[in-house]
């Protein structure tokens, strides 16, 4: 690896060891000879079913784990990709902060590679807006840095956004810097079976979540106690509400729709995230049509970043 | 370091001078692509006038030496497609342009490319409150959209200082920020989908209105790509509910370090204000003289802090900010009592750059980001750097984001002054990076900073950025010669040599 003294290229033996492990075998063993040494990165496999599936039986690697640096006063955290999201969430909670990653038992790298938002996205923000810097291993085993450590940055092309949601097809995440946010002072879930959730979304300023199953509505209000009270008054003016412990159990399959499409869903068994467009349903969403030009650019990106198709073969679709 | 700056600022100029020398006398350009452009658009929307091309060879920075080819004013996506196809047939470069308010040279045409001026594509196409989205054309003025949304109770959150004139297409190209991006996020967080025309002439919609569009986030990488991936022709922006209430505080300090420490302490306290802006004494005096906004002229620095939301919560936050300010030796804490007072304070902040004109004929506005906790330390260095180069510096910046905007005053008629300006600028950049910062918070890289990219990134990092670029623009015909340093920017250099000799002087 070339060392140019660039300020983000901080030498890190753990990340460099991961890069060597991901990289193509220097001297292919007999069973790897002649192929491209396909490789896949494994987290906790909690969202392994997302996107196009792996083909063949690639070699498995695991990203390094651990929180590297946490600066609550900067609202940023540097964390290795193999770290469980729950471990990160606990560390942030100790100082009254949180991040946009969904905690579903998975890893930080897995959550970013999949790119799905937390159920409380309205309050926590979009996952892809929270990834400030990525360090990933390229198909040829090099450690690459994109983005930067500050909360605001427009230096160069946006590799963090390219890697987020890319299902490990362009590079394997080794370490990321994430934006964190203060946790609200108060969070309360409310439930009603007699209100219009869409009208509520218009009348509440910034709810943490509004969930709806076609008849019942769950609302998370968060913020200063006095604000939660004020918004709870808005809730009660629209119908009867009761405080409850948390959201309902979500059906297994995740749909992505435009927020207005939730008004007329073509099936019954669902929980919809009003104002967001995510729907949890009993059946999977049919594949969405892909613009042929988008498909062409996607294929060119894959061949630019992984010319031999080593990384997560099959997952590029 | 000085050599690096010289090459960044003068490289373009040198190339252009060469062309001017060979082509100055050609009164009527006879470029073979002109008939095709005229046939595709109409003669009155393909401009070849020398004065206009000269005007469009600049942006709002002091970077000199650009040179425009024909200037096209398309009115539809179809016309942009036609321009791109013609450019492709003639193997020529294209530079998209909005209002030209950029500060890093991103819209400065290099090598007589076709300039695609998008200012006539300026319609707000639809506003869809149910989906919290508005579809706009790229030439819509930033503030015009928020004015249009006002009766509905919504606005477009990114609010650069130039928002009265800058275009949303330009905001997309630069991933623009603004004071209120502290709480609301910069442009990329407010873009749902883009209709784009690629350099090949192919059109595509990137992203979507749905919650989690499938596939790679091509929308996300297109935002902020400074026109190097293609031309944006329609934009779906998220519209944000207007906050019901707001508190605006003006805190005065006897030392700019105290203001910087207050900002750092507010964030550390778990408050994310809508905006936190600092102005030092020199700029405050200039602003006060210019608009009479009620800023104290005897304070070493002022902090303009704003919180918005529900009345109860923002009272708590405003009180806490005042308390933190006083703990950091604030000499006065004043709250805007009326909407008029608030508007005046913001007018002062947003016209700061106009106020400079009273003091010096020229200024160089920098843009770096540092960790918030390092603000005070880096500011000290900025003043010291200016002193050592015998320059006047003023600081007005998005303190809440750690986004510094040191502003160096000068008179371009003074011999040798630009060398001192660039030398000081390079030291400010180095000081920011040494503190753990980055090259640009919101102005972009353009021409201005491309030669500094390898201070932040390795060759391998830059090579990967170039791979991204090449996937969209394999022939490097979209705004060549920008962002990546010359050694890393695919075929840009070859592309820049493809101008018919002596045509576009």
Give a verbal description of the structure:
- The complex is a heterodimer of chains A (317) and B (505).
- With 317 residues, chain A is an alpha+beta fold.
- The two termini of chain A are 31 Å apart.
- Chain A has a seven-stranded antiparallel β-sheet with strand order 13-10-12-11-15-16-14.
- The model of chain A has no long low-confidence stretch (mean pLDDT 94).
- Chain B is of the alpha+beta class and 505 residues long.
- Chain B has four domains: 125 residues, Uridine Diphospho-n-acetylenolpyruvylglucosamine Reductase, domain 2 (2-Layer Sandwich), CATH 3.30.43; 118 residues, Uridine Diphospho-n-acetylenolpyruvylglucosamine Reductase, domain 3 (2-Layer Sandwich), CATH 3.30.465; 115 residues, Alpha-Beta Plaits (2-Layer Sandwich), CATH 3.30.70.2190; 97 residues, Alpha-Beta Plaits, CATH 3.30.70.
- Chain B is built from 18 helices and 20 strands.
- In chain B, a hairpin with a 5-residue loop joins strand 8 and strand 9.
- In chain B, helix 1 crosses helix 15, helix 9 crosses helix 11 and helix 14 packs antiparallel against helix 15.
- Chain B is globular, with a radius of gyration of 23 Å.
- The two termini of chain B are 32 Å apart.
- The chains are: A alpha+beta (317), B alpha+beta (505).
- The interface between A and B is large, with 87 and 94 residues.
Concise synopsis of the structure shown:
The complex is a heterodimer of chains A (317) and B (505). With 317 residues, chain A is of the alpha+beta class.
Write the layout of secondary structure elements.
The complex is a heterodimer of chains A (317) and B (505).
Chain A: H1 13-22, E1 39-41, E2 59-61, E3 67-71, E4 76-80, H2 85-93, E5 97-98, H3 108-114, H4 121-124, E6 131-137, E7 143-147, H5 159-163, E8 172-179, E9 181-182, E10 186-192, H6 197-203, E11 209-212, E12 217-223, H7 225-238, E13 242-244, E14 253-256, E15 270-273, E16 278-281, H8 292-305
Parallel strand pairs in A: 1-2
Antiparallel strand pairs in A: 3-4, 4-8, 5-9, 6-7, 6-8, 10-12, 10-13, 11-12, 11-15, 14-16, 15-16
Chain B: H1 2-23, H2 34-41, E1 46-47, H3 50-55, E2 71-72, H4 77-89, E3 94-97, E4 114-117, E5 124-128, E6 133-136, H5 142-149, E7 154-155, H6 168-174, H7 181-184, E8 191-197, E9 203-207, H8 218-222, E10 231-238, E11 240-241, E12 245-253, H9 256-268, E13 275-280, H10 281-291, E14 301-309, H11 311-327, E15 330-335, H12 339-350, H13 352-355, E16 362-365, E17 368-369, H14 375-388, E18 392-397, E19 403-404, E20 406-410, H15 417-434, H16 453-456, H17 459-472, H18 492-496
Parallel strand pairs in B: 2-4, 3-4
Antiparallel strand pairs in B: 1-2, 5-6, 6-10, 7-11, 8-9, 8-10, 12-14, 12-15, 13-14, 13-18, 16-20, 17-19, 18-20
